[in-house]
Amino acid sequence: MTSALFFAFAKGFALSAGLIVAIGAQSMFVLRQVLRREHVWSIALVCAAADASLILAGVNSLGCALAIVSGLSLGAWLGRSGVSRLVWGLGAETSS
């Protein structure tokens, strides 16, 4: 495995682990209900459906925004919003 590929894999793994480890209000609610064994399947189904619908809405909204604004690519959008600096650590690579 090349070093660039390993570096990209390590960054992606760390980002995913950070998202999984963080326990939000919904996750705490689901865990509490599972431990109490109250309405486990219905709560899991509703939470999964809500998550899937929000992900779908976000992906479709970004797709529509990129399609409407001519000349706007995903890379330019991410660069302007600063997300790329947060996710990929581009802020640390700039020299002063």
Describe the structure.
By secondary structure, this protein is an all-alpha fold. The chain has one domain (3-91). Helices cover 81% and strands 0% of the residues. It has six helices and no strands. The chain has helices at 3-21, 25-36, 40-68, 74-81, 83-88, 90-93. Helix 2 (25-36) runs antiparallel to helix 3 (40-68). The two termini are 33 Å apart. The mean pLDDT is 76.
In short:
By secondary structure, this protein is mainly alpha-helical. It has helices spanning 3-21, 25-36, 40-68, 74-81, 83-88, 90-93.
Principal-axes shape call = flat
What is the terminal separation in angstroms? 33 Å
The succession of helices and strands, N to C, reads HHHHHH
Computed Rg = 19 Å
Mean pLDDT: 76
Query: Which stretches of 5+ consecutive residues score pLDDT under 50?
Result: none
Biggest β-sheet description: none
Number of helices: 6
Helix coverage percent: over 70%
Let me know the number of strands. Answer: 0
Please tell me the total number of domains: 1
The chain-level structural class is: mainly alpha
Q: Strand portion, in percent? A: under 5%
